[in-house]
Amino acid sequence: MYTAATTDTLADLRAVLPDDSFRTDTNPYLTEPRGRFAGSGIVVAPRDTAEVARILGYCNARRIGVVPYGGGTGLVGGQLMNGGAAPLVLSLERMTAIRATYPSESVLVAEAGAILADVQRAAEDIGRLFPLSLASEGSARIGGLLSTNAGGVNVLRYGNARAQCLGLEVVRPDGTVWNGLSRLRKDNTGYDLRDLMIGAEGTLGIMTAAALRLVPKPAGVGAAMLAVPSPAAALDLLALAQDRLGDGVSAFELIHRQGLDFLTEVGPDFRAPFAQTPEWMVLIDIGLPAGLEPDAALETVFEAAAEAGLVTDGIIARSGADRDALWHIRESIPEANRRIGSVSSQDISLPLSQVPAFIAQAGPQLARIGDFRINCFGHLGDGNLHYNVFPLKGETRTDHDDKRAAVKTCLHDLTDALGGSVSAEHGIGRLKVGDLERYGDPAKLAMMRAIKDALDPNGIMNPGAVLRNLTDD
Amino acid sequence: MYTAATTDTLADLRAVLPDDSFRTDTNPYLTEPRGRFAGSGIVVAPRDTAEVARILGYCNARRIGVVPYGGGTGLVGGQLMNGGAAPLVLSLERMTAIRATYPSESVLVAEAGAILADVQRAAEDIGRLFPLSLASEGSARIGGLLSTNAGGVNVLRYGNARAQCLGLEVVRPDGTVWNGLSRLRKDNTGYDLRDLMIGAEGTLGIMTAAALRLVPKPAGVGAAMLAVPSPAAALDLLALAQDRLGDGVSAFELIHRQGLDFLTEVGPDFRAPFAQTPEWMVLIDIGLPAGLEPDAALETVFEAAAEAGLVTDGIIARSGADRDALWHIRESIPEANRRIGSVSSQDISLPLSQVPAFIAQAGPQLARIGDFRINCFGHLGDGNLHYNVFPLKGETRTDHDDKRAAVKTCLHDLTDALGGSVSAEHGIGRLKVGDLERYGDPAKLAMMRAIKDALDPNGIMNPGAVLRNLTDD
User: Fold this and answer.
1) CATH 3.30.70.2740 in chain B, residues?
2) Which residues pair with B285 in a beta bridge?
3) pLDDT of res. B471
4) Which chain regions cross the lipid bilayer (chains A, B) (predicted)?
5) Is A149 part of the contact surface with chain B (CB cutoff 8 Å)?
């Protein structure tokens, strides 16, 4: 459907865009963040929405593929091509303005290239909270976060990226602009194009700005790391905490001993929080209104949970530094995983009640494929597990190249059988297109294809992401 | 695009559906709820999803229009045709099952014909809250509520109907079924078809069941009716209450003296809550976690607000009966409005900070058109006003037939100029198609048309709702 960007393309665009729009060092843009593959293409960084529109109109007329590029942190290859005709890579890195803040409305309008940490700070500056939070917040950009409907640690309370967005400005493939930058809380005038664009991974158009919903900052916050006898007990603990604290439970993260063992393995200075690391732990984070004391609330929860046999030990943060230290452990696990090097990493979600069954069945099934170390952790309150499979100590991931496909299929088949999703928060990108075809509902896939063809008739937008290029076959 | 349902259609369907599928008394189905116009058509009430699929497949092959019918409470004509070829009206009234409840997941799966009050009770039965709540909850059905993305009084805290839905089962126009009844909190596998179907008002397919998200019941609830000096003060009061109570503020309703005067006018037994009714009041409802006392919290808010000059008087509910009585006043206003008979009724939303400007400007602008009584009330926390214009006492709405269009245009133009929406929660239906064309962003309308054509190529689904039938022109 689409054709390659060439030196002619570059010459044409140089004639209509300022000189500083072009990136000659294409290394960061065309390298998968884990170094798994490299892409190709011309990289352009427009200054504003009008330039984005001009570029898209040009490419659409010539059927040149366009790959939108945010912070480059995606793990499913949505931000770079792994084959096919070289595209134009459109980086939003220069569109970083906070266009406006509306303190009395708890709304902020940010351009797509704004970095998440900067948006969090802009919210803080007007006394509000922008609750989207994840490990890559120092480099991930709003456009990419919305395009992939990013998750993170506060989804339990505040929802995913989709729930933080009130309105969008989007450049369509033909270069026309949808001005949907609404700050309205309610608007039932036609189809929900905002939520269609969110999570479409740049295959239907390019977001250039978003109106973001801010929330009141909780009056008091707290955290605790609790040892639990099993994943099932962890879920009961979540229900107990929610019964007592309602929406006050902001995050509820499952951690396995393997994660802490990895931290010790890659960083010998790491100090484990418990004298003897339990097999399963949860990190619970709370935010409460004025009049409730977070530490006391966590103690009450701990006591009730201990009485019910749901916790066996625990550490309640006594200061902001304590809380940061507990969170630092959780947030260091992905980097430790990367340094160990996984055979296969999954980002799955399950109906909450099926989480224990998944964990109980996955280990024995994998053991039939080979001997592995398993680090299962993640956002338990959302039913979202990062179930990552590693080589034994002394081996490397490449020793298991022949088993990788079987491991993935085993875990995805089990997820699917239990009513789960094979991509909870990372999206489809290019690396999970086959999974979507294998596990997706056929009627859903047919509707997605129809929508793609309707909104991007020339197939130029992020070709091969989410939906396969039919001409690739 | 579509053709009329005829006696041949009826004969064909009688051959493949049980006898009790047909409705000979078509009066409720074909009458606008305020009696404003009548429709035409054949009425069929299938028992299950397979029958819905059979009916749609039949109609699609013959290009017969299909109008989905839920509780019939919509106010914008989405549930009945106001002209054109007679359609098949497909009522979901027999698909009322609660298919399953999942207490440990806080999820419930209901068929599209389940009545909202029954769903609320089913949630209550497992100790949870289904927070969608509105005046017509005794007759509105889940399919219609989701198809119109209904709002109501708890949107401020819990979001609109869209936010309560985790998954959908939808019959496509060609009779194929999308099984999207997911109970997952996170699932980033492809385009967000769920949110596209929600709010599409039956123009893209027919919802047959939904997986609904339940929430924990707050440990304690309370309510107060407070007199405020102005709409601007009401907004400051909202900010003050949210600063202190966070998410604890469940509803924040604006009430004008005119509403209470109407209650007195239509029901002389009505007892006004204040000795002297203030011009502006707010009804605030709160739900708090264990450890906080709602009455005390409301008193603290009242005292701080009084000190800041934001309230002048107030009634804090001292019992559940008190709270019900305050809510009864609010919920009686729409019926009083109906009995008075409006010249024109608007369902608009505004950026929160623009609400005072709208109220300040709308009255003087209307005064240039004629002499009216104005009842402005609604969900202030969401920026959603029901701004309704009535004849003076002794006159009737028909006395102002010549001014109706000017009143509507005046209010909608002002709404649009202030960045608002001309349909906050009622949808477009057939009565606001022209408004959508007038005020909608052209790029948005083009995308909506493309999606409609892609997902309903024969144009059979709810013809003329949301988007005009091009062949009508």
Assistant:
1) 341-425
2) B223, B251
3) 63
4) none
5) yes
Q: If we measure between CA atoms, which residue out of A282, A251, A284, A253 comes closest to residue A158?
A: A251
Q: What is residue B22's predicted lDDT score, i.e. its pLDDT?
A: 96
Token pair listed for B429 = 């239906």
Hey, what's the torsion of the CAs at A385, A389, A394, A397, to 10 degrees? -120
Of A188, A193, A439, the CB nearest to B424: A188
Facing residue for A192 by CB, picked from B151, B176, B196: B196
For chain A, say whether B301 makes contact (Cβ under 8 Å): no
Cα A244 to Cα A97, A292, B127, B428, distances in angstroms? 41, 12, 13, 41
Whose CA is closest to B93, among B22, B197, B157, B6?
B22
- A473 CA to centre of own chain: 29
Distance of CA A60 to CAs A54, A379, A466, Å?
10, 40, 19
pLDDT digits (tens, 9 = 90+) for A20-57: 999 999 989 999 988 889 988 999 999 999 999 999 99
Please name the residues between 357 and 386 in chain B that touch chain A, using a CB distance below 8 Å: 379, 381-384
What pLDDT does residue A103 have? 93
Neighboring chain B residues of A291 at a CB cutoff of 8 Å: 291-292, 297
Tens of pLDDT, residue by residue over A190-244, are: 999 999 999 999 999 999 999 999 998 999 999 999 999 999 999 999 999 998 9
Min Cα separation A266/chain B (Å): 31
The answer to whether B448 contacts A190, with C-beta atoms less than 8 Å apart, is: yes
The token duo for A32 is: 């998968």
**Which of these CATH numbers, 3.30.70.120, 3.30.70.2190, 3.40.50.620, 3.90.1150.200, describes B220-332?**
3.30.70.2190
Task: List C-alpha distances in Å: A376 to A74, A347, A384, B455.
Answer: 20, 10, 10, 40
Contact between A185 and B384 using a beta-carbon 8 Å cutoff: yes
Secondary element (H or E) of residue A386: strand A384-390
Residue A159 structure tokens: 């929802």
Question: What is the pairing mode between strands A66-69 and A88-91?
Answer: parallel
Contact yes or no for A65/A5 (Cβ under 8 A): yes
B451 touches chain A (CB under 8 A): yes
Residue range A7-93+454-472, CATH number: 3.30.43.10
Angle, vertex CA A26, rays to CA A20 and CA A32, nearest 5: 140
Query: Considering the domain B98-216 in this protein, what is its CATH number?
Result: 3.30.465.10
Q: What is the pLDDT of residues A9-22, one digit of tens each?
A: 999 999 999 999 99
Mean pLDDT of chain B: 95
Interchain CB distance below 8 Å, A155 and B185: yes
pLDDT tens digits along B58-93: 999 999 999 999 999 999 999 999 888 999 999 999
Q: Find out whether B170 and B205 touch, Cβ atoms under 8 Å.
A: yes
Query: What residue has token string 């980097």?
Result: A335
| pLDDT for position B419 | 97
Average pLDDT estimate for A166-186 = 97
Give the type of residue at A421: S
- Distance of alpha carbon B99 from its chain centroid, rounded? 24
Q: Which residues contact A127 (CB under 8 A, 6 or more apart)?
A: A103, A217
Q: The domain A218-336: what is its CATH number?
A: 3.30.70.2190
Q: Cβ contact (<8 Å) for B191 and A155?
A: no
CB B378 within 8 A of CB A185: no
